[in-house]
Design brief:
With 321 residues, the chain is an alpha+beta fold. It has nine helices and 14 strands. The chain folds into three domains: 54 residues, Arc Repressor Mutant, subunit A (Orthogonal Bundle); 202 residues, Bira Bifunctional Protein, Domain 2 (BirA Bifunctional Protein, domain 2, 2-Layer Sandwich), CATH 3.30.930; 48 residues, SH3 type barrels (Roll). The longest helix has 22 residues.
């Protein structure tokens, strides 16, 4: 089906005869493949007698050859899947099967995309970026302190390189534009974090998504195409992000998060705001003071400064902020 998709991705009408000739198959075989695309990938295909077939919306498919040849990805072998339950989950399975890190896995679609704290990450076909990079860690916990914040910085720079001018960071793993979520990060560890382990850097970016089912996303969101007023080439987004991520990881692994603390805080959207931190069953209200040298969030709570870190924490602005 992938060759047929590449012919249709421009969003223009193509006759069944022309599609069949290009693919070396009959018109009836083209029709069967079109039905398969609609059923398997949830794509909407318009059929007009005398004109042929076209996708309801043009697509910009990921290009494995272009990405494999990109200088931005020279250190990370890259694979592109048509569909997978979760890119992070697939990376974990590949590690368990003995695949050597580092490597990067991308997908056109996730059927069970995951965010932090067990949330679902909406992942329609060929609209957004679903990106999982696995890297080996040999220096213990220090090398992964503040890592989600470092990844956020790389995402921010890539989005700005595409032309977005009003994006910023929310602790610990979100990129926002005008208060709306445009990207998120999910880090997962395989192995012993105190010794040798692997970190899976999972990233989701709303690239060209325009609509979703009303109850699919429970928080305000936007996409790069909505902000920029044009479709985004997701291959270019992969290249921009990977280039920035490699540069930031080099600093992180060499000098730790402390070397990037000031830069992260300069792009922090909620500095000085009143917020509520959810930690298990506890709700902690305080003024956001920034982050410390390990990436922990600093709050002024009842007149005293306290720091918090952990994968299950959630930060929200309070009603009186």
């Amino acid at each position: 089906m992938q060759p047929l998709l590449r012919l249709l991705q421009d969003g223009r009408f193509h006759s069944g005869e022309a599609l069949g000739a290009a693919l070396g198959i009959s018109r009836s075989a083209v029709w069967k493949q079109l039905q398969g695309l609609e059923a398997e990938l949830g794509l909407s295909i318009h059929k007009v007698r005398g004109r042929g077939y076209k996708l309801q919306n043009p697509l910009i498919l990921l290009d494995p050859q272009r990405l494999s040849a990109s200088p931005a990805l020279k250190q990370w072998p890259v694979s592109v899947l048509k569909s997978v339950d979760s890119t992070n989950a697939e990376v974990m399975r590949l590690l368990a099967a003995g695949k050597q890190a580092p490597f990067l896995l991308l997908a056109e679609q996730q059927t069970a995309g995951r965010g932090r704290r067990g949330r679902t990450w909406v992942s329609p076909f060929a609209e957004n970026l679903y990106y999982s990079l696995v890297i080996p860690i040999n220096g213990g916990m220090r090398q992964i302190e503040g890592l989600s914040l470092v990844v956020g910085l790389a995402l921010l720079k890539a989005i700005e390189q595409l032309g977005v001018t009003n994006a910023g960071l929310k602790w610990p793993n979100d990129v926002l534009v005008d208060g709306q979520k445009i990207a998120g990060i999910l880090l997962e560890i395989s192995g012993d974090p105190g010794d040798e382990c692997h970190v899976v850097i999972g990233v989701g970016v709303n690239a060209n998504m325009q609509t979703v089912a009303a109850d699919s996303i429970t928080q305000a969101w936007t996409s790069l195409s909505s902000v920029l007023g044009r479709a985004v080439d997701r291959n270019q987004l992969v290249e921009f992000f990977s280039s920035h991520l490699q540069a930031y990881l080099d600093v992180q692994m060499r000098d730790g998060f402390a070397a990037l603390q000031a830069q992260w805080q300069a792009n922090h959207l909620w500095q000085g705001r009143m917020a509520v931190l959810t930690a298990g069953q506890s709700l902690i209200k305080g003024e956001i003071l920034g982050v410390d040298t390990t990436g922990a969030i600093r709050l002024r709570v009842d007149g005293q400064e306290r720091s918090f870190s952990g994968g299950e924490l959630s930060l929200r602005l309070s009603d009186d902020s």
